[in-house]
Amino acid sequence: MSAFYSIIIPHYNIPQLLKRCLESIPRRDDVQVIVVDDCSRDDVRTELKGLQALFPTFHFVYSVKNDGGGAARNIGLQQATGDYVLFADADDFFHDCINDVFDDYQDETCDIVYFNADSVDSETYCVRSRADRLQGQIEDSLRGTDKDFLGLRYQFTEPWCKMIRRSLIERFQIRFDETPSVNDATFSYMVGYHAKTIKVDRRKAYCIVHRKDSITFTKSLVWERMKLEVMARKNRFMIDHGIPVFDAGMFYPFSESYHRKDWKSLDEYFGIARDNGFSKSYILFKLVLRSLKYRILNAINSKR
Questions:
Q1: What is the distance between the alpha carbons of residues 88 and 73, in angstroms, rounded to a whole number?
Q2: Residue 191 — pLDDT band, cuts 50, 70, 90?
């Protein structure tokens, strides 16, 4: 039986967490699993060989360079054969109901199926908040308050919790940015933009893990710059295509550099914004509005 679903998992130096992720995937003839190791340490690769023995039907690919999760996912896309592609992070895992989800969409033909998630701490399994925004976007779509799926199409910028028709990815040659971080936003909003038919499933079939040493929580000046470049490019795309969505994440690097009194970075960030059609006066105006907004909200909340 040929694969109907291809699951792509980038991995780097966390073999035990990867093992947990792989154990959560149902063994099915219609599911292809592709693990792309992003040039982990030699001792870790030895552990991965052991995982290959435990999961003989899963396909392991070993990168010769550490190019980041985006590059690893692109390698996985080259290997994928399923009608639908899913992505998982190596430290996350699926819930048992993913098996039912796979059963229920075996005859599906729409471009994207978005499904729900919850979030826990990687060590304690205490509930965390990383899935809250997605849960809200799922509910908005199902209630009909977001009839155009704008939140899921353009604001849910992570690669997981979506089954994407592989023919759509290939038709429009959509790929991940090959940067060390912030490499999934462009892919996510581009598949959202090109998708004509969308379905939304309320089931929490995926768990987004909170892990302090993950790249999500490792901030740096390089990360700030990448985030600004990606978000400015995204907002320019939205404006140019008449899409009523603006990602306020673009303002984060400006606020952070200002609070640090890092004037050199601030000047560089204004230059990046200008290159994408956003003037310095526009950025300052928006930052002032955001500051006033939060002050007003805090004042209202303090009186309750």
A1: 10
A2: very high
Locus of tokens 């996912």: 73
Virtual torsion, Cα 38, 20, 6, 1, nearest 10 deg:
130
Tokens standing for 29? 């003839």
Name the residue with tokens 């914004």. Answer: 273
CB-CB contact of 205 with 95 (8 Å):
yes
CA separation for the pair 226, 269 (Å, rounded): 10
Contacts with 132 (C-beta within 8 Å, 6 or more apart), sequence order: 119
At residue 57's C-alpha, the angle toward residues 54 and 62, to 5°, is 80
225: phi > 0 → left, psi -120 to 50 → alpha, else beta; which? alpha
Mean pLDDT of 182-200: 97
Confidence of residue 238 (pLDDT cuts 50, 70, 90): very high
Strands 93-94 and 5-11: unpaired
Question: Within 13 Å of residue 164, how many CA atoms lie on the same side as its CB?
Answer: 33
Check: pTM over 0.70? Answer yes or no: yes
* Tokens read off for 99: 């098996």
Task: Confirm if 86 and 13 have CB atoms less than 8 A apart.
Answer: no
